[in-house]
Structure formats: structure tokens, C-alpha cells
Amino acid sequence: MLFPKKVKHRKWQVGRKHPDKLQSPDTRGITVAFGSYGLKATSQARVKSNQIEAARRVISRTLGKTGKVWIRIFPDKPLTKKPAEVGMGKGKGDPDCFVFEVFPGRVLFEIDGVPEDVAREAIRKAAAKLPLKAKFVTREQTRV
């Protein structure tokens, strides 16, 4: 699974959930840069490192030995969690997992070296492993 080697701060602040800014589209990482096909997010979510790994595994299993996969996101934000059945108060919980905050428009995975129908199937299976809505895009669709 992906996680940082070293972090400056063990615990981050939560961040705000302003309704106007919640669905603001991403401005970075919105084009297919390395491969021919990609998985593009159409909704907002926090993607955990184990979900990224599950999607990567199903993509590489579907592609076989000929395809190449690029992961365009890295979970570097720590989430904390308090143990089960613990009362309120007594400070912030311990770090539980690392996440990446995905906004609409971000390309999460890229694929190359396989036909389009195989890539489309791999992207469909990977999107089922992630907690967001996503779509299949090609290099030509994302270029402006």
C-alpha cells in the first residue's frame, strides 16, 4: 500500500466542507499525460491507500503482462480515528490511514499498451473499487 516514508506532522486538521467549494473541479492532473487511456473522477471523495491498491491490482490483473499502469495520485493526508466505544473528549485519535482528496476532473490512473476494449474493461473494474464516480477517457478527449 502507498503511504509516505516520513511526515512533518502526524495529524492534520480536518479541513472545511463548504457546500459551494465542495464540488469545485480540479485544475491540476486533469489530462491524460503518460498513457493512452485514463480513469477520470466525476465526483469528490477521499480515496484511501488500500482502495488505490485494490484498483491497481484489478487493473494490472486485467491488462496482463503487456499493459503498463500509471498511478497519478498519492495518499499523503493522514486521517485519525478513535477506538470503538470510547467516549467524547480525551484528545484527538491516533492516525488510522492515509487518504488523497479527489475532486472532479482528476485523472487517477492511466493505461497504455493494450487495445481500447481491454482498457475500458480494466477501468470499469477499477472504478467499482473506488468510492467515487468515474469515467473512461482517452488522450484525445482530455487535450484542449
CATH homology-level superfamily: Ribosomal protein L16/L10
Order of helices and strands: HEEHEEEEHEH
Helix run count: 4
Measured as a percent range, the helix fraction is 25-40%
Radius of gyration: 17 Å
Return the CATH class. Answer: Alpha Beta
**CATH domain fold name:** Aldehyde Oxidoreductase, domain 3
Strand content: 25-35%
CA-CA gap between termini: 34 Å
Oligomer: single chain
Sheet of most strands: 4 strands, antiparallel
Structure, explained:
Helix content is 25%, strand content 26%. The chain is α+β, with helices and mostly antiparallel strands and 144 residues long. It has one domain (29-81, 93-142): Alpha-Beta Complex (Aldehyde Oxidoreductase, domain 3). The protein has a 4-stranded antiparallel β-sheet. A 3-stranded antiparallel β-sheet has the order 2-5-4. α2 packs antiparallel against α3. The chain starts with 18 loop residues before the first helix and ends with a helix. The model has no long low-confidence stretch (mean pLDDT 91).
